[in-house]
Write a structure and sequence with these properties.
The complex is a heterodimer of chains A (109) and B (114).
Chain A (H helix, E strand, L loop, with lengths): L2 E3 L3 E5 L4 E8 L6 E6 L6 E6 L3 E5 L2 E6 L4 E6 L8 E8 L5 E3 L3 E6 L1
Parallel strand pairs in A: 2-11
Antiparallel strand pairs in A: 1-3, 3-8, 4-5, 4-9, 6-7, 7-8, 9-10, 9-11
Chain B lengths: L3 E4 L2 E4 L5 E7 L5 E7 L6 E8 L2 E4 L6 E3 L9 E3 L8 E8 L9 E2 L3 E5 L1
Classes of the chains: A mainly beta (109), B mainly beta (114).
């Protein structure tokens, strides 16, 4: 079966750095996505990785290793507004998105 | 501004009633999707449509129905056959082509069965 694993919850301090991991086992691979979702709101797109390596976009970076079935989202200089759930999703061989359950990130002052 | 509009935002239903959730987009996207989100679970695909007058079942289509008569509109009906309909429902659209995976989501509709 297809499976996406991410930690359920993480806590970090304002101004610090946090890394949210995602491991996957899917039927084929056509890219990995990270979305941010604030409580009660819709997910918003953060990043897309299809090749191995690090993609940097401001305070957020996303890394992919296809051989290991592994990705992480790195958030730097954490702000209180970064408190949200972070969803990892993989596009499989049929170009359908398989979603992880999300990681709830709690930022403390 | 372009975007996706879902309505209603909150909906209460009695058991045995059908309800329809609206989804309208003005992004000129061909593909539209309906997802269900439950606590502690990933988004699950209910139905999707790649083009007008065509749609396919997702992983959890039982108890749901859709139509795609216009490019802009993709309403979802939650029927009385859906045994556990209380959930957060998300509509999304994306640009065509398999390599353009970024989804644009509506604000969601929270359905509660009383």
């Amino acid at each position: 079966g297809q499976n996406i694993d991410q930690p359920t919850e993480m806590t970090a301090t304002e101004g610090a750095i946090v890394q949210i991991n995602c491991t996957y086992q899917t039927s084929g691979f056509n890219g990995l996505f990270w979305y941010q979702q604030h409580a009660g709101e819709a997910p918003t797109f953060l990043s897309y990785n299809v090749l191995d390596g690090l993609e940097e976009k401001g305070r957020f970076s996303s890394f992919l290793s296809r051989s290991k079935g592994y990705s992480y989202l790195l958030l730097k200089e954490l702000q209180m507004k970064d408190s949200a759930s972070y969803l990892c999703a993989v596009m499989d061989s049929n170009y359908q998105l398989i979603w992880g359950a999300g990681t709830k990130l709690i930022i403390k002052p | 501004d372009g975007g996706i509009t879902q309505s209603p935002k909150y909906l209460f239903r009695k058991e045995g009633q059908n309800v329809t959730l609206s989804c309208e987009q003005n992004l000129n996207h061909d593909a539209m999707y309906w997802y269900r989100q439950d606590p502690g679970q990933g988004l699950r695909l209910i139905y999707y449509s790649q083009i007008v007058n065509d749609f396919q079942k997702g992983d959890i289509a039982e108890g749901y129905s859709v139509s795609r008569e216009k490019k802009e509109s993709f309403p979802l009906t939650v029927t009385s056959a859906q045994k556990n309909p209380t959930a957060f429902y998300l509509c999304a659209s994306k640009t065509p082509g398999p390599h353009t995976g970024e989804l644009f989501f509506g604000e969601g509709s929270r359905l509660t069965v009383l």
